[in-house]
Amino acid sequence: MPAESLRWDTLEALKSSPKGRLKYNPDWLEKGEDILSGCNEAPSLSPLSGLILKRLNMSPRALQKTCSLGSASRDPSPGLSEEAPVSSTSPFPSANAQPTPLSSPLLVPRLKKDTKQQIVGDEDSAPDASDDLSPVTNPIPPPTISLLSPRATQMEGCIRICEEKHRAKAKMELSLRQELQEKLVASVASRESEQLKRFEELMELKQRQEYQSMRDMMDRETQESIGRQEKLKEEHKNRIKILNLRLREAEQQRLREAEFERQRQVEGRERLRALNAIQEEILQLNQLLEPAAPTQSGPSPDLTSYSTRANQLCSQVSEVVRMTAEGEFPSVEDMTVAERALHEMRSLIRVMQEAAAQAQEKRKKEQEEEEERRKMAVLQAQQEEQKKSAALSAKEKARKKGLQTKAEQSTLKWYQELQDSANQCAQAFEGLNNTKDIQTKKLRMELQKAATIPVSQISSISGSKLREIFDKIDKLLSGRSVVSGGKSVSTSQHPNGLDFVSYKLAEKFVKQGEEEVASHHEAAFPIAVVASGVWELHPKVGDLILAHLHKKCPYAVPHYPPMKDGTSVEEYQKILGYRVEDGGVEAQDSFLKRMSGMIRLYAAIIQLRWPNGSKQGPAPHGLNNGWRWLAQMLNMEPLADVTATLLFDFLEVCGNALMTQYQVQFWKLILLIQEEYLPRIEAVTSQGQAGSVTRLKQFLESSLRSRQIPPPKGQLSSHFWRS
């Protein structure tokens, strides 16, 4: 609209006109009210209406297009733009304009209808502004034309412009609201979609968790069922073991009872044979007491009293034999009665012979003595035969049961080699012992003190003190000077000084075991660890220790020396280890105490090693020698009281080390001792010697019950060596 800038002037003119005081409301269009209802009065033609009248002779379509003023104001058609520049965009009246009234009343309604159609068309063509809105064609042209007044036309144009602006603003706001709503819907849809995804993921997670929990529960139940099955299997195995042990114990008990019954039968038969022999001898002796016929040499002595007493003794023995003839074996008391009767009968014979010798002539006396000697020879031959048969039966029994009465040849050879080596060493320094030189004697005394005093000072007070003693002994054996009694002494001062010191040192170690360890069992470990360290650095001293130990305690080999022909009882007891003095042989308790001390020292030596030694490799006399000693001890027939004592002391000191080293094999050996060897020890042990057997039995039972042997008391710990 070319004159759009003058719209406000037009509005002011309308407001000042008497009928133009209009109140504009933007809601009119929405409410459908007719905005120009108050302006429908007869208009006057504007100066431009001439252009419209020129087209009255045109076709109805051209007239209809010309009448579409409102539409041409926004989107002019090509027809109007070609004819003339007259349009509703210049609705203002000109000064030269002459009002040309039109008598046709149908023009205003037609224009109103076209205006409404154009508004609707604008709304429909809003998405596509390039499309032209054409007025509705009417094939029947109106007979007359009624035009609006210029002011009404201008007013209508302004109103339409306002409406277009409001409509555009409304469309823009509507599009913004639609876009906002679409964004909101899109965001809500996206959020809901994400929430749906999260919900689905949560549900899947819950399903997986439930599935995993079910699998875990099934796995736990499976493991529990497997554990229960294993536990049942283990319980079944334990029950089988217990039943097997009970069956074995029952079988062993039956065998022991059978062995005991067999032994009782054998002993009963032996006693019965001895009783028969006693009866036979008594009857033979009784015949000697019968009164002899008188001879020409003189009257025979009166033997009535002797014969009466002999008959009484024969009656006693016959009564005992009669009691045993009923199917029972003679008891020990019966044998005592029979032996007492035999002894008394022999006494009667002796007294009778003495009386006969006094009463008869020398010839008769010689005859009686000859007869007596002959009978005694017969009895001795019978006794010797019985002894030989008993020895043969014992050897046969030992051979059948796999036990020996003496050590193996290899062990005896080793034992003899050690003794020969010790004797050679003693012969080497014999000149030092038998010297008459005063200086040499003093040197011998100083060397002996330097060798024995440090061994006497060994104790478990502290590790540093023990190391000082060991270093002093090592220096002495290495030929270096040591201080003893305020004087410096060395083995290099005499050619045989080293042999003398080694011999005396080994002798002192064994003597400490014989005396100190026998009284205080815990002292075995510090003495043994020093002896082991010296043995490792100076092997000759170790061999001398073994030689002295075997000489004083042959059971440490183990070796049971047999009694040789021509050896006295006292000499044989010395060989067995007893002390024989002017007052006689030492008591059994003292003997066992000394043997126990030396065995404890030996058991400690084989399991210990000097901790600060520099040599590598196995110990010079290790645990394998303890296993050898124990095995050979069990292969030999037990000795009453001695075997039980030594086994207990050895196992109490060395049992824990052997258990750690040999494990299952060691427990088999312990079980063998309890089941087979201990009954043999009990069989040779009398009632007064049952203490050592009881201690050994309790030790074996406790060890097998707990499957553990505790470490010995007094064993040196790592804390001791830091003290």
TrEMBL record:
Q: Which GO terms describe its cellular component?
A: cytoplasm; nuclear pore cytoplasmic filaments
Q: Where does the record say this protein resides?
A: Cytoplasm; Nucleus, Nuclear pore complex
Q: What GO terms describe the biological role, i.e. biological process, of this protein?
A: poly(A)+ mRNA export from nucleus; protein transport
Q: Where is the signal peptide, in residue numbers?
A: none
Q: Where is the composition biased (Acidic residues)?
A: 121-131
Q: Which Gene3D superfamilies match?
A: GLE1-like (1.25.40.510)
Q: Where is this region: Disordered?
A: 66-148, 359-406
Q: Which GO terms describe its molecular function?
A: inositol hexakisphosphate binding; phospholipid binding; translation initiation factor binding
Here the segments flagged for biased composition (Polar residues) are 86-103
Q: Where is the composition biased (Basic and acidic residues)?
A: 360-375
Protein keywords:
Coiled coil, Cytoplasm, mRNA transport, Nuclear pore complex, Nucleus, Protein transport, Translocation, Transport
Coiled-coil stretches:
189-253
**Taxonomic superkingdom:** Eukaryota
InterPro entries associated with the record: GLE1, GLE1-like_sf
Q: Which family does it belong to?
A: Belongs to the GLE1 family.
Task: Briefly state the protein's biological role.
Answer: Required for the export of mRNAs containing poly(A) tails from the nucleus into the cytoplasm. May be involved in the terminal step of the mRNA transport through the nuclear pore complex (NPC).
Q: What is this protein called?
A: mRNA export factor GLE1
